[in-house]
Amino acid sequence: MSDPKHHHDALFKKTFSVVKHAAAEFRAVLPTALVARADFSTLELCSGSYVDEALVGSQSDLLFSVQVSSKPALLYVLFEHQSSADKLMPLRLLRYVLRILERHLEQAPSVEQALPLPVVVPLVLHHSSAGWSVARRLEDLFDPELVAEPALAAVIPRLGFVLDDISHLSDDALETRALGLVPALTLWALRDVRNPKHFERSIQRWASAMAELLAAPNGREALWTIFRYISLVADDTVAATLSDAVQAAQPQVKEALMTLAEKWMAEGEARGAAKGKAEGKAEGKAEGKAEVLRKLLSLKFGELPQSAQLRITHAAEVELDRWTERVLSAETLEAVIGASSPDPR
Q: 44 with 20: CB under 8 angstroms?
């Protein structure tokens, strides 16, 4: 299975590349005066990424265009999912903002038409065990005595960013944001699934939100995405906690959550890995991966047809890995495993 950091990235982009979810996050964390002047009905997702290649494992980003006071602006969201805060973040953001503006210049027919440059508002969404405790402004990276010198102050580059540090955000604060079910559950999962103690404290509170999402239009797929993230990132303690929470839930909540969590996909992955190790055979490992893939596909697309079952049974391990990675973004079963029948030989 791929690096857990990949799964942080996938959940972040799956949720916040949806414009209405991104708009909810912006409204919740951007300065009030900026929110009041921004026309979020004009919010659009832009293509491309600006993160340094060496940091794609710990950072991912999304860029949006929006009208602010009837003028073009850009809202840049950087998702920081390292185990600790990046001390050089203001400097990295300066580099990313410059790349965004350079692209703006490249796409303009002329320099005259490219000016004035659009304002770029950087927003860092961060979660880690310790939370954010380092610089939030570029000038903080320079010697403070020199920054204070009037003769130097005018030539020192300055850049600040909006920080949304959810590392220690309380459940009350998260609910107060009124983000909507999908963004709220996404932030909850990013915040808690790697910390069994936090997860145990919060799961009961969020169980009803899961059931509510499951009953909403397109809620099954959205909740499945969150559950898959939990299964791929969390340890066995978290899996057991979720199972206990489902068992203890109100009858209607329990019924809804059991639709997705009854057998808890991570248990299938753990069994597969254990079987492969015990048998010392590739066959056992592939069988375990096939079991996980069947569960993921069933959760997302419903009961699998016999042809799909056979295709999975006869697949090589490398195919199972590739198909499992496709499940998160695929819209149909055929998009994951194809429609052709396997060779029975």
A: no
Structure tokens at 337: 């495993």
pLDDT given at position 131: 92
73 touches 118 (CB < 8 A): yes
Predicted pLDDT of residue 204: 81
Residue 182 burial class via C-beta count within 10 angstroms: exposed 0-12, middle 13-18, buried 19 and up:
buried
Neighbours of 130 (CB within 10 A): 10
pLDDT for residue 15 = 95
User: Chain centroid to CA 89: how far?
Assistant: 19
Q: Which residues of the chain have pLDDT under 50?
A: 1-2, 263-268, 340-345
Map tokens 């899961």 to a residue.
210
**Residue 82 burial by Cβ neighbours in a 10 Å radius (0-12, 13-18, 19+):** middle
Closest CA to 124 of 168, 93, 101, 158: 93
Tokens in use for 284?
Answer: 């056992």
pLDDT of residue 276: 53
Q: What is the pLDDT of residues 154-187, one digit of tens each?
A: 899 999 999 999 999 999 999 999 899 999 999 9
Tally of CA atoms within 13 A in the half-sphere of 5 that contains its CB:
12
Residue-level pLDDT at 162: 97
With beta carbons less than 8 A apart as the criterion, state whether 153 and 144 touch.
no
